[in-house]
Amino acid sequence: MEKLNRCGWCEGDELYEAYHDNEWGVPVYDDDTIFEFLILETFQAGLSWITVLRKRENFREAFDNFDYKKIANYSEEKIQELLQDSGIIRNKLKVRATVTNARAFIEVQKQHGSFSKYIWSFVDGKPIQNKIENYKEASATTEISNKLSKDLKKKGFKFVGSTVIYAHMQATGMVNDHEISCFRHSEVKDLEK
């Protein structure tokens, strides 16, 4: 079988490659998936993405399948239970931020009709097509991620610094940061609405 040319950051790990090949950079417009990625990205802050990816199913189970309506109503008892769950990243501030972010997410939905409409408005509703030759040259933040991060913080979101938000934009296809030599670069580009 012919070896696919992938972005350098994912090579050599089956889970990473599957995530890269099937999800990373694919434009996401549904609020449920956007919220899932937002939560996973906030837990990733300061850690490697593979760490979060390996615990993704545990997160899904622990956080009611990333149901933001349920998460917004978590009690102190539920928060304490999560902090005892060794299957997830047990960072007290991030667990509490997840509840805060679920509440803020619902508020944004009320104001904009959907969170998707709100977040995609920062890129005029369509993915930015970058031409990255080597993932190491990719930006960790941009003017747009700075602006979006600032706006989310104003709306009460936590752990949404510009780097976290740019990673979220990459994951949900708001930007196509696949290396131009990667087989997914043109495939993802063709998925544009």
From TrEMBL:
> Which Pfam families does the UniProt record give?
Adenine_glyco
Q: What Enzyme Commission number(s) apply to this enzyme?
A: 3.2.2.20
Coiled coil ranges (UniProt) are none
**Which reaction is this enzyme known to catalyze?**
Hydrolysis of alkylated DNA, releasing 3-methyladenine
Which GO biological process categories is it annotated with? base-excision repair
Which residues bind Zn(2+) per the record? 7, 20, 178, 182
One GO molecular function term of this record is:
metal ion binding
SUPFAM superfamilies from the UniProt entry: DNA-glycosylase (SSF48150)
Domain of life, per UniProt, equals Bacteria
What this protein is reported to do is described as: Hydrolysis of the deoxyribose N-glycosidic bond to excise 3-methyladenine from the damaged DNA polymer formed by alkylation lesions.
> What is the designated name of this protein?
DNA-3-methyladenine glycosylase I
The species is Salegentibacter holothuriorum
